[in-house]
Every structure is written in structure tokens, then in C-alpha cells.
Specification:
Blueprint lengths: L10 E2 L2 E2 L29 H53 L6 H17 L2 H27 L8
Antiparallel strand pairs: 1-2
Helix pairs in contact: 1-2, 2-3
Keywords: Coiled coil
Length: 158
């Protein structure tokens, strides 16, 4: 028996090799027993080993199938996201062409979000067009604000 746990035979590099190999020497205390490594022989039949192998193989195949289905679902969702992003872009462009004044504050926020998503997707031309639309909307809203400020004080808005 060692005087201190750190000096014990089963402690290697500051960790106990008997417990888990990971617990630090500080979690051990000197006690009236000692740890002894023992080897135990176990007999297994070929059928037991084969059954164990089959069980593990089935679990592995199940996890591989689950992983493949999750990857496929992820690909499908990415494709759907791309389609919806393109559809949103087309609707914004179409709205700009037909609307007299289609820019509200919420539209500007949506243009900003859609522009960022297009940049993430790698479609710089569409993102540039959306940024141009946003700049035009800002110019239009600034001009309207200037017009209202410059109006004679006697004007009433109807």
C-alpha cells in the first residue's frame, strides 16, 4: 500500500487505470483496501458471437438508413428553400413592375432579407437588383417626406 494515492501502482500519469482510466488521482483516498487487477476468462460459443454480430449489424444498418433518410430530407428542404427564394424574388420584381407605390416599410425589410439570402445562395445579380430596388424605395420615401415638409402651412391633408 502506498502512503499517498498518487504513489499507488494503479495510478498512471495522474489518473486511475482501474476505475475508468479517466478519473483523477484527487478523487481517490487512502483506504484499507487495495485495488487488484484480475483477468477473467469467459467462454462463448460461436452461436453467441454470431448472434451478437447479427444484432450489432442490424443496428448499424438501421442507423445508416436513418442517416440516409435524414440527408435526403435535408436535400429536399434545401431544394424547396431555393424554389421559394426564387419565387419570392420573381414576385418582388413583378410587384415592382405593376405597383404604383409598392414600397412600404415592411417591403423594405423584406427586400433586405431577400437580398441577404440571395447573397448567401451566390446569386449576386439578383441581390444587386434587390438592393437597387431598395435604394429606389428609399429615394422615393425621402422625396415624399421633403414634399410634405415643404408644403405650405395652410395645406391640410385629405
Amino acid at each position: 500500500m502506498a502512503w499517498y494515492p498518487r504513489d499507488c501502482q494503479v495510478i498512471k500519469k495522474g489518473h486511475c487505470t482501474v476505475c475508468t482510466g479517466k478519473c483523477p488521482v484527487s478523487s481517490h483516498v487512502k483506504a484499507k483496501w487495495k485495488y487488484v487487477n484480475k483477468m477473467k476468462k469467459v467462454k462463448k460459443t460461436i452461436q453467441e458471437m454470431k448472434d451478437s454480430y447479427e444484432r450489432n449489424r442490424k443496428e448499424y444498418e438501421k442507423s445508416v438508413n436513418l442517416l440516409e433518410s435524414l440527408k435526403q430530407e435535408s436535400r429536399n428542404l434545401e431544394e424547396q428553400k431555393t424554389k421559394l427564394l426564387d419565387q419570392s424574388y420573381n414576385h418582388i420584381v413583378q410587384l415592382e413592375q405593376v405597383a404604383l407605390n409598392g414600397y412600404s416599410l415592411s417591403t423594405l425589410v423584406h427586400l433586405d432579407v431577400l437580398s441577404k439570402k440571395m447573397m448567401e445562395k451566390g446569386e449576386r445579380e439578383k441581390a444587386h437588383k434587390l438592393n437597387e430596388m431598395k435604394d429606389q424605395a428609399h429615394k422615393g420615401s425621402r422625396a415624399g417626406l421633403r414634399y410634405i415638409k415643404a408644403a405650405p402651412s395652410g395645406w391640410e391633408q385629405k
